[in-house]
Amino acid sequence: QTLGNPNTEQLLSNDLITLNYALTLEHLEFEYYNFFVERFTSADFINYGGGLTFEYIKLIRDHERAHVDALTATITQFGGVPAPKCNYNFTTIDSVDAFMATSTILENVGVVAYDGAANRIYNRTLLQVAATIATVEARHAAFLQYVSTANTSSRALPFAGFPAIADGAVDQATSPEVIVQAVLDTGLITSCSYTIQTPTILSIDLSLPSADQSVTNPTQQQVNDNDLRALNYALTLEHLESTFYATFQDVFNASDFASLGLDPVYDYTCFNLIRAHEAAPVTFLTNVIRSAGGSPVAACTYNW
């Protein structure tokens, strides 16, 4: 869906639809975790790190509640009507194995959902609100994916077949339309008092003023130059991370991880995967900047 040259009212309306789409997902996540926190105990997580993992699950539940509150307050502040929670059915998830596996995918779905909606938000303040939530969802996903490797016996999931778990260094942004259908297909949401709307992709005339821009009515060249600066800023950080991990790959080995009480095989493999993931965005951002006519920044000199 694309809306060409929208006016200010249409821009705000579309942004609020996007935030309510996110709020619908956050309602689901909070109610999901709250349901199981009240049914499980730390002893149930013996195969997943025990009490510490259960405490983190409760922290995730609290994070999701904070996301609901933040989105509700933001939507209200901008004159919108926050979407209420739907009705849910979580009873088909009948074990800790199924809960952990489903939670891992649910969080990954949340990450790619925010990624897929980012290009439909016009107001930069609202975009930043969404981005600050998305990064926390990614931390949830990373933790759950890590601890879930302890027991992989249950993978028959409500989201079976949905490509949400990131195997590569760059996530696959997934459109709101695909996310909504995937979530409804799980049966976790049984009904809503409203129709879940998905935002449109905006085709914006640069002559439209924006209170969020310090440069009023920028030219196309100014917009492109500013975008390239932002990408080179990101590339500078990726160079730092990539070089850091590459340096210490040659310093440490699996036995060093064992001395810390970590799994010498799995944790060292994860370390090397992080290194590969940091190297890939360097290539990705370099190619994007070049394709947009920019000059990618080079790596700096570092002291570890």
Could you explain the architecture of this structure?
- The chain is mainly alpha-helical and 304 residues long.
- Helix content is 58%, strand content 4%.
- The protein is built from eight helices and four strands.
- It has helices at 8-37, 51-77, 96-117, 124-147, 176-186, 220-249, 254-258, 266-291; strands spanning 2-4, 87-88, 189-191, 201-203.
- The strands form two sheets. Strands 1-4 form a two-stranded parallel sheet. A two-stranded antiparallel sheet has the order 2-3.
- Helix 1 (8-37) packs antiparallel against helix 2, helix 1 runs antiparallel to helix 3 and helix 3 (96-117) runs antiparallel to helix 4 (124-147).
- The termini are far apart.
- The relative contact order is 0.12.
